[in-house]
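Re: the 247-residue chain
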Amino acid sequence: MTSVIKIISSILQNIGLISMYWLVFLCLIQLLLLYLLTRYYLGSLYRFFLLITKSSNWAMRFSAVFLLPGTVIHELSHYLVAEILQVRTGNINLYPAKNEEGKLRLGSVAIAQTDPFRKILIGTAPLWTGLGIIAALIYIIVDKIPPLFFLILIFTAIFLIASTMFSSKKDLTDMFVPTFLLFIIWLFLYLTKTALPEAVITFFSHILISLNLGLLVTLAIYLIFLCLLYMATRLFSLILKRKIITK
């Protein structure tokens, strides 16, 4: 597995030599795919526990417990960035509940109203924190192959962190503006073929290679977990002779 990761890292470095813009494009595509997979996974996990417990409340609680490590990182990211930016904060709530739309809310943190710039930084904090942790974990794997037990722990940690990077619709709303601006800047630089300083290209290429490698590994881990969850759901459906009908 680690040999495959090293090969992919080499391929990404070659792409970076061709054009940094393609690394940006690849990163955005992978983020979109990861978002879609996390949405599907959260729904599938809830339906799995609903199949076993026959109770929406218990299904919600079990899902929240399973996702708790990622939820802690998510809410702490909001909280710490707000504190750094000197925005007043309140209590952190990790107890699952349904929001006004009837969907599962894994946690929340009370944050005072602030200006749009700081609001965007606070709202997108879980994504950048999650991506940073994932990139760091991938670097550990590439730098030195850990024992199998620690490798499984690292992959599980990546999976749990990625599961809650996009968990709030409000966070996604906050993320839209900077993502759109970055895309416009990327498109302008690409179409005008603007030559950036070599040091800037090298710096951002290293970051983008790490991000793309982390996202690619995360997508692969997600597909494996989704397959396992699908097989477990099918198995329990046959054993319990129940089906979950989604409306």
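Strands lie at 89-93, 97-98, 104-105, 108-111.
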